[in-house]
Predict the structure of Uracil-DNA glycosylase.
Amino acid sequence: MSAADVRLEESWKRVLGPEFSSPYMQQLREFLVAERANGKRIFPKGAEYFRALDLTPLGKVRVVILGQDPYHGAGQAHGLCFSVQPGVRIPPSLVNIYKELETDLGIRPVRHGFLESWARQGVLLLNSVLTVEEARAASHQGRGWERFTDAVIRAVNDECSSVVFMLWGSYAQKKAAFVDRERHLVLRAPHPSPLSAHNGFFGCRHFSKANEFLRSRGLEPIDWQLPTDPVLSQ
C-alpha cells in the first residue's frame, strides 16, 4: 500500500507517505482485507479510517485530543475520537467531557455527540487505533495502527508550533510523552471515563487553558460550543 493508493488529505499524505510504503502498513491492510473476507464487520467504514486527518490538515492543527480505540457498536464510530454519529446516544466519557465544558466555560451540553465542528477548527481528534471489529473492544490493537498514529503525533510535534495536547489518561500520556513542551502546551488529566473522571478530570479546565494558550500565541481560540443541530457541523 502506497500513499497514492490512500484517500487522504494532501498535507498528511506528504509527511506520512513513508508509513504507507512500510511493511507494517502492508500487513495491516492485508489483515483488514482478510477480516472483511471472513465476514467481520469493521468500524468505522473504510472511507472514514482517516477522517480525523481529512478534517484537520496538518497546518491547521491547534489542539490534539488522543483517544484509544473506535467505538465498537454499530453506527457509532466515524473516525473521530470520542465522537459519535448524529442520532447515536452520547457515550459516558463524552457526557463527562460536556460536564467539564459547562463547568469550565459555561457551555451548555448539546443533545448529540457529533464533534466534527471541533475538528474543522483545528482540533485533531485522533484515536491510537483506527479500526475495530464489531462488539470486540481493542480487537485491532497491536496490528500496526499504533505505529502509524505515533507518526501522526510526531509530525504535529515537528512540523507545527504552539499546539495544545490534551492527554487524558495514562495511555494518551505515554503515547505522547515525547512531545516538545517548549514548543507546545501539554495538558494532562485522568481519563473522562466514569471510572476515573472524579479523580481529576473534572476541574482540569483544559478547554479554557487551551484557549488562553492559543490567544497568548496570537492564535484564534477554539469555539467549543457545538451546533445545536449536528447537521450544521457537516
